[in-house]
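Hey, quick one: can you model this chain's 3D structure?
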Amino acid sequence: MVDLKGQYQHVKTEIDHAIMQCIESAAFINGPGVKVFEQKLATYLGVKHVIACANGTDALQIAMMALNLKPGDEVIVPAFTYVATAEVIALLQLVPVMVDVDATNFNTTANLIEAAIRPKTKAIVPVHLFGQSAPMEAIMKVAKAHKLYVIEDTAQAIGAIYTNSDGSRHSAGSIGDIGCTSFFPSKNLGCYGDGGALYTNNDELASTIRKVANHGQSKKYHHEIVGVNSRLDTLQAVVLSVKLDRLSEYAAARNKAADYYDKALAAVDGIEIPKREAYSSHVFHQYTLKVSASKRDALKQFLEEKGVPSMVYYPIPLHHQPAYKTSRYAHNAFPIAEALAKSVLSLPMHTELTEDQLDYISKSVIQFFK
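Sure thing. Here's the predicted structure for all 370 residues.
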């Protein structure tokens, strides 16, 4: 599904040099490389502040702590997403309120969010799933009307650009109050371990985020608020700095691969290729097909036999997960999320795919449906 070794070969000299410089400096925790990376990423995204942390899940938790959400407050999340989005809500004794998603682009909508707002609702977490932004302009209008915080989960869409109806353009993650991302190795911008970051344009909020991520302190041994210990290692920061210089190139490679899949598979009966919305560029963290539910698992098995990896993201909606089941939701409460869980299948998608590989993968899919 990914080829991190192949990607490394293209940047080996720079990566090795950056790592050796970090080791020689012995500045492993909060070294200069962390600040350099934060500044570079802020410039790339067009935001005032980037605060690095240990992983994407921590980023979401830190965001909610920085917004001073209290136990019992409700936070709206899509039912079709990775568990981390809801996990941190539950860990903080907040209440995850789930909503369905759009059947064509996999993201939740402003209408679905607005229908779920109640007196205890305090925040919305739109997830930019698979590499394409949720409809943020409409979501922000709902948030503003109801005075709700917006925390963007951008773990799969770093580098995606959202275009408003007035033509203004913004990086995914820079539109709400706080954006959160992950640098898990397989992400579009991935390090060689765990890592994450938060972004914001709010000076006061940025200061609070930094405190929360650093034991609640802005000055050593002076703990002003309750915080956590969540930091990006300097070694990971220097790796990310090298790869950030190529993030646009990586997105272009992913789009080239997606274009190949689109052309090869668009006319195949029994599958639906990913929809690309006019309001958002797509950075294709995943290339996710919709397959007839009766054939999805058989196609996955067929591809495996042909030596083609594929993955189901995600096979169980959040409201069906034992940890998040509640009497609030009937078994079929979110029919689209439930249908997608039975029909989605992601094909290999990374920066090192060759035309021969894409041809073999596409022909293998076509062969199954003949």
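One thing worth noting: The mean pLDDT is 97.
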